[in-house]
Amino acid sequence: MTTAAAPIVTIIVPGRDIAAFAPAALDSLRAQTEARWQAILIDDGSVDDTGAIFTDAAARDPRFRVIRHDASRGLGAARNVGIDLVDTPLLGYLDADDEFMPTALERLTGTLASTGSDFAAGAYVRTRLQGETYVPGRLQPWVAAATRPERLATTLTAHPHASTNIVAWSKISRTDLWTGLRFPENVAYEDQVVAQLMNTRARAFDVVPDVLVHWRFRADGGSLTQSKAQLPVLRDYLHGLRSGIRVLREAEAQAAVTVRLELILAMDMPPLLAIAETHPDPAYSAEVASFIGELQELPEFAAAVPDPNFAAAIAW
User: Fold this and answer.
1) Which residues of the chain have pLDDT under 50?
2) What are the residues whose beta carbons fall under 8 Å from the beta carbon of 248, sequence distance 6 or more?
3) Cα–Cα distance between 289 and 277 in angstroms, integer?
4) Which of these, 1, 81, 157, 257, has the minimum number of CB atoms within 10 Å of its CB?
5) β-pairing verdict for 119-130 and 205-217
6) Distance (Å, rounded) from C-alpha 108 to C-alpha 207?
């Protein structure tokens, strides 16, 4: 009898009411060319069949483990529960409505094995519904700037554009990097500050140009990024941006702050300003204007030259 190799990486997969998409996410794990993984599936208070899908996956494949929250605790809390259970040298994340490419784990874990860096990050593309199928779009320019060309054992000083990769699920990291590091809870956009803390705490990190994740832009409008017209979501969003910039400034990573400001001005602000023009609550436009005023007060603002092509690229 052949004994399965011990897992080297744990993937934390949180989800709430994503029964329509969870099977594809789990299939993308099963299809990995690097089979030495285990996954913690966290059903965050779902009222649909998400929990049943997770439970069935664990019954069929011992690499899956299920944690269930009776009531939703939020994405940050769900990920933190998973972190506390990791017993492998490496960890990563996959949201249960997204998909890994088959070589994702092989590429990132293999890179870390050769460099000894603290984390490795890859590229990703959005998928949008066309007809009855979600179709991947083109590589967006800010993702390319963060991940191309390949850089091994680099730093934020050497590669400030790494600051534009603010998603958790495009990276595999050493579990030791998470000592004392957790996601903010009870807020949205919890990735923002954590990504910059990873960038500034890492002794070295790797970036690879391969597209390793398909990020689903849901046709039902259920993605958090599709809810920015809601004032509470806007406030969490701006808080996330502020927190990430603060981390970079406290680390004296001025070039990374400038790069981050360029992307915020080019990509984040135009749609928010468009929403503010017709939003029925004047507090919305006041929040956006206040945030822009804060950015203008930063010493790095004068050096920030946003790329006008970035805003247009949001459409794909």
Assistant:
1) 1-2, 224, 316
2) 156, 163, 196, 199, 200, 256, 257, 260
3) 11
4) 1
5) parallel
6) 9
